[in-house]
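From the methods appendix. Each design record in this collection lists the tokenized structure first, followed by the designed amino acid sequence. Records were kept in a plain field format so they could be parsed without special tools. The example shown here is representative of the layout used throughout.

RECORD:
FOLD TOKENS (350 positions):
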């Protein structure tokens, strides 16, 4: 039997990496929660106290630490790379997709992510720290707007409180990385945005998406999307067709609309067409992605991450953008922060 691989990162890092890889590999959420819960329990404890519990075999007396996470902690404390981590690195640690590597190397940030303030699974600070660890320069927090009650959408009051949390996270990170204030704002039936202008004006980036009445009549959906794109606050048109092609939620056909009219409005108003990188979305479909490129749109490759491990989904979007031949300079998530913020400022008409 070969000697265990050395591990110097400590037990909390091992538990966080395991959770990240489980999310990256789209494994069951309950498994992820078990390891994240154990990491949260261990984080405030002194290293010598944890080592004493390992020696006494009492780790599972801690709230949130079960047999599987206890084994990981024991091995990490001994300086061994935990068996569970070795296995997951082998299964989920490699490239997610072939292609897009050159473009991915130019990507600086991600304009679409969620936290446990709406329907994400992790705290804001965990999402931000993971994005920083992945080498991103900026990440936009875009929890849902109030009408999406199923996703615990944020009222104006809750969003205002969240902005204070974002300020606190950025102060803690000390400029090494920037968490930007944003929203995934619901596009209402008439194309209006589901948040007050006052709150939208306080944000850095706004992703506008349709989440209801996806089977709306083609002409009505076209008017709905064009109206949303014309709104001076809209920066990104999120997952424009709403389709689902695989995954636990099943499949869903794409919404019908005049794509040329919608993308021409995006090009006219400088609104980015989102290349939603979630494997179950692949939105827009290839033909529409090529049409938007032909029309002259700019794009945003976004993870739409609802958990830290999903932040790596950007690789899927980069592969699709590269295959479509899109110039990296037309992808706003390759832009430096100052250029991005200048582009995202509300347009005249507000």
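DESIGN:
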């Amino acid at each position: 039997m070969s000697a265990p691989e050395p591990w110097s990162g400590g037990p909390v890092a091992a538990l966080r990496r395991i959770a990240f890889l489980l999310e990256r590999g789209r494994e069951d959420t309950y498994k992820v929660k078990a390891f994240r819960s154990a990491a949260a329990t261990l984080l405030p404890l002194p290293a010598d106290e944890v080592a004493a519990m390992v020696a006494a075999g009492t780790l599972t007396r801690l709230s949130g630490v079960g047999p599987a996470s206890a084994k990981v902690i024991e091995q990490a404390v001994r300086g061994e790379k935990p068996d569970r981590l070795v296995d997951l690195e082998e299964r989920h640690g490699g490239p997610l997709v072939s292609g897009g590597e050159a473009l991915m190397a130019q990507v600086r940030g991600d304009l679409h992510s969620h936290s446990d303030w709406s329907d994400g699974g992790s705290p804001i600070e965990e999402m931000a720290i993971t994005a920083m660890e992945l080498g991103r320069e900026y990440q936009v927090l875009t929890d849902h707007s109030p009408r999406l009650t199923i996703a615990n959408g944020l009222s104006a009051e809750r969003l205002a409180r969240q902005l204070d949390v974002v300020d606190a996270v950025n102060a803690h990170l000390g400029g090494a990385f920037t968490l930007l204030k944003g929203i995934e704002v619901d596009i209402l039936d008439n194309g209006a945005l589901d948040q007050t202008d006052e709150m939208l004006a306080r944000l850095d980036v706004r992703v506008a998406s349709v989440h209801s009445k996806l089977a709306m009549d083609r002409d009505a959906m076209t008017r709905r999307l064009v109206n949303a794109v014309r709104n001076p606050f809209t920066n990104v048109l999120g997952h424009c067709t709403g389709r689902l092609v695989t995954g636990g939620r099943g499949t869903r056909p794409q919404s019908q609309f005049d794509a040329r009219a919608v993308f021409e409005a995006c090009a006219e108003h400088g609104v980015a067409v989102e290349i939603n990188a979630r494997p179950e979305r692949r939105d827009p479909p290839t033909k529409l992605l090529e049409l938007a490129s032909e029309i002259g749109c700019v794009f945003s490759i976004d993870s739409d991450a609802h958990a830290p491990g999903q932040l790596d989904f950007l690789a899927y979007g980069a592969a699709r953008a590269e295959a479509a031949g899109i110039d990296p300079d037309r992808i706003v998530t390759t832009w430096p922060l100052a250029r991005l913020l200048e582009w995202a400022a509300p347009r005249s008409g507000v």
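APPENDIX NOTE: The two ends are 68 Å apart (CA to CA).
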